[in-house]
Every structure is written in structure tokens, then in C-alpha cells.
Amino acid sequence: MKKILSIVSGNPSGSLNIAIDISNYLKTRGYEVIDIFRKYNNTDLKGIIVIKDKFTIDYILSLGEFIRHSKPDLIIVHGYSTHIWTKLALAYAKMPVKLIHVEHNTEKYTPFRRYLTRKLDKYTDKYICVSKGVANHLIKQGIDKSKVEVIYNGIDIQSFDLPKEKHDIFTVGMVARFSKQKDQMTLIKAIEYLIKEKNEKINLLLMGIGKTRKKCEEYIIKHNLNNNIKIIEGNIKELITKLDVFVLATHYEGFGLVLCEAMAAKVPVISTSVVGVKDEVIFNHKNGLLVNDSDKIDLADKILQIKNNQELKNELVKNADIFVKKYFALNIMYAKYEKVIETI
Q1: Cis ω before 81 (30° cut-off from 0)
Q2: How far is CA 84 from CA 37, 47, 123, in A?
Q3: How far apart are CA 169 and CA 132, in angstroms?
Q4: What distance lies between CA 88 and its chain's CA centroid?
Q5: How far is 33 from 329, CA to CA, in rounded Å?
Q6: What was the pLDDT predicted at 275?
Q7: Residue 16: which residues within 8 A CB-CB, separation 6 or more?
Q8: Are 338 and 292 within one domain?
Q9: Which residues have a Cβ under 8 Å from the Cβ of 278 and sit 6 or more positions away?
Q10: Which CATH number characterizes residue 195's domain?
Q11: pLDDT tens digits for range 210-233
Q12: Alpha carbons 117 and 140: distance in angstroms, whole number
């Protein structure tokens, strides 16, 4: 049995979900996997070891001691900047441990963190990137590109074969962390434009937590949109059954996993045309629609195209269903990760 440390930030996110999925799969394959969260466990998951830290150096030293004590064969670390501090902990531990760095996003590397990433390249046996766009961005930071491999995130496609809830008004939805990156505000303003300028009967359901949620709630109230725009609690499977179209209004993205989940649920998708989505998850007018970043009019127009054109909607859904089954099934992702692990 090989011992693996699986390390990720303890905040709920797509990268955390993928980390846990991979960890659970490896456990079924006979690996001894220890799940480690950095700083906190803001999930309901049990059996997680949390390396708490008051400041970054505290985490590096504490994790270094844990590595020395646990003597793992492999570390799989997900996310920025957790991967940098984990590699420094491995350097501090001075142990011959293999390391896989999983990059989930086109992260904004500062000059200092870019320098550290290059310097710590020697502690990294493999970089797994969740899209070609993420891989190209990471290579630009100066790491050894021969170590880079792209493995798309996978989803449990069958679990999204869900019955739709009946509703009278065309409903748009988005689930994402409330943040500047995800830009729910542009979607809110697009719906406001359709209601007030185009006299459309249309609803919007938003789901998520985060720093910009309060600002969005205040805007909805101030602009008398309460009857049409709701922020609800729950998970994507609870939201997706209520929708006629799913939107991701993000400014940047590593890999739009929620778009794949919507595709699997046979809901048409719209996203901003960003690296990690364009020509990797969405091929415009084939399996979804792409829109310009921060452009409420373009977004509103694309929503209307799907609302008013049943033939287009059916075509997008049919193509997306074929596409997601071919490239984004969980078993495909699992097999590729296990092959990398066995290789190194």
C-alpha cells in the first residue's frame, strides 16, 4: 500500500470537490490517502486533518513536521497558493517524496510567487492542469513544461439525469461563489435589462456564498427586482431542475465544471468567452453560447436567443450531452490520474 497526502484549502470550491473525488477513488484502489486541509474545514466532511496556521510560515513548518512524521510516498497538492507553501514544507522536511501539483485556475501570480514557483519546480514531479488554457498559463510562470499534463475534471454524469420542475416563467440560473471573478452583477443587470427594457417575463435564480453576495442583494432590492431575481440556498442539483438556461458570467476560469454539470442535466449553457471555457468546454453555437466579458447586452441577447428559439435550444442540448459523455466522465478522469500516479 502506498501512502498519499492529498492537500487542498478547506474552503468549499470546485478544486476541493475534485480533490475529494480523487482521494475517495484512490482509497478504493488500495492507496492509503490522508486528506489534509489548509487552515480550516468549512465543509461537513469528516476524517480531515487540518493544518491550522496563524501565518504562512507556521503552516510551512507544521506541515513539514507532519510530512516527516507520516513519511508519505506521494503528495498531491491542489490550488494556489497552497502548492507553493506545501513545496516549501517538503523542502523543510528534507524527505524524498514525490509530488503532483494540480493547477485548477489561471491564477494571478505575483512576481514573488512566480519566482518561488520556478525555484520549487525541482520538488514537483508532475503538473496536472485542468485545461489547456491553465497549462499554457502555468508554463508562462517558468516551470518545466515537460512535466505538464492536461487532465479534464470529471463529473458523475448519471447523477445529473434529473426530472425538471414545472414552472410557468422562463428561468435563468447561476451557481458560483459570489466574487468579483464570477461577476453575478452583470447577469443581474442583463436580466434587469430584459425585464425593464424588453418587457420580457423572465426569472433569475442565483446560488452561492461569498463576499459580493450582500452587494448583489442590495442591488436587487434597490432596483425593485425582488419578484424576478432570487438568491436561494442549496446545491447545483437542486437549482438545475428549475432552469431553462444556465449562465456562467465569470471574468476568468480554470475549467467551467458547473457548465459540464448543466450539460449533463440537459440544460443549455451560456458563458463568457474566457480561457478554460472557450473551445474546451463550450464551442460557440454548437454545444453552448459564448458572450463578451462584462457585456450585459450581449448576455441578454444570448439568453433571448435560447428563450425564443426552441430548435437552437434542442440542438445545443443534444450536442452538449454527447460532448460531456465523451470527455468529462468521472471514470476517464480517475483512470488518467491513476496512470500518472503509477508512472511516477
Answers
A1: yes
A2: 15, 24, 10
A3: 38
A4: 25
A5: 23
A6: 86
A7: 8, 9, 10, 43, 78
A8: no
A9: 284, 290
A10: 3.40.50.2000
A11: 899 999 999 999 999 999 999 999
A12: 11
